[in-house]
Amino acid sequence: MKVNIQLECTECKRKNYSTSKNKKNTTERLELNKYCKWDKKVTVHKETKK
Fold first, then answer.
1. CB of 31 within 8 A of CB of 46?
2. Strand partners for 2
3. Residue 50, class by beta-carbon neighbours within 10 Å (0-12 exposed, 13-18 middle, 19+ buried)?
4. Percent of the chain whose pLDDT exceeds 70
5. What does the domain layout of the chain look like in residue ranges?
6. How far apart are CA 40 and CA 34, in angstroms?
7. What pLDDT does 26 receive?
8. Pairing label, strands 2-9, 41-48
9. Of 5, 15, 32, 40, which has the fewest beta carbons less than 10 angstroms from its beta carbon?
10. CATH homologous superfamily for 2-48?
């Protein structure tokens, strides 16, 4: 039941990362701290719709 998702930077609004998650275990949207190469710092990245 894995689904591929895109992670979008909350500051620059670019889709920087893609990953997968299990929808049965994680029903809410993911929020991860990741490095944004355009902002050159660690920012919050949220799951987006495709």
1. yes
2. 22
3. exposed
4. 98
5. 2-48
6. 11
7. 87
8. antiparallel
9. 40
10. Ribosomal protein L33 (2.20.28.120)
Token pair in block for residue 40: 């050159």
CA dist 5 and 19 (Å) reads 5
DSSP letters of 13-47? --EEEEEEEETTT--SPPEEEEEETTTTEEEEEEE
The reported pLDDT for the residue numbered 49 is 80
- pLDDT tens digits, one per residue of 31-50: 999 999 999 999 999 999 86
Lookup: tokens for 5: 């998702």
Average pLDDT along the chain:
92
Residue with tokens 């670019």: 14
